[in-house]
Write a structure and sequence with these properties.
Length: 110
Amino acid sequence: GQVLISDLASRGTTYHEAWHVVTQFLLTPSERKALYDSYNQRTGQNLGYNEAEEALAEEFRSFMLTGETNIPEHKNIFQKILSIIRDFFLELVGKNPKNLEKIFNDLKES
């Protein structure tokens, strides 16, 4: 699929949408379920999976814009996802020594 982002989109929309690409195309359904359940447990909410996905995408957007998160374990996970996204795109344009299989394995293990 493609992600189209308007020139009028708010600041950080690209990060928000990148989160969706990672979770929807690179995580298994069981990994997504665990992620959403963890979000609900951490926040004390009972959001559906779509709402939890959106909330996490917004947390990632905020992290990317500020470099800060109130949840230490999120900083680690967000940094891993950012590194994987960066390495993936650098590999696609041939500017990264990591191979694509290694990037996918890194993401799978995260």
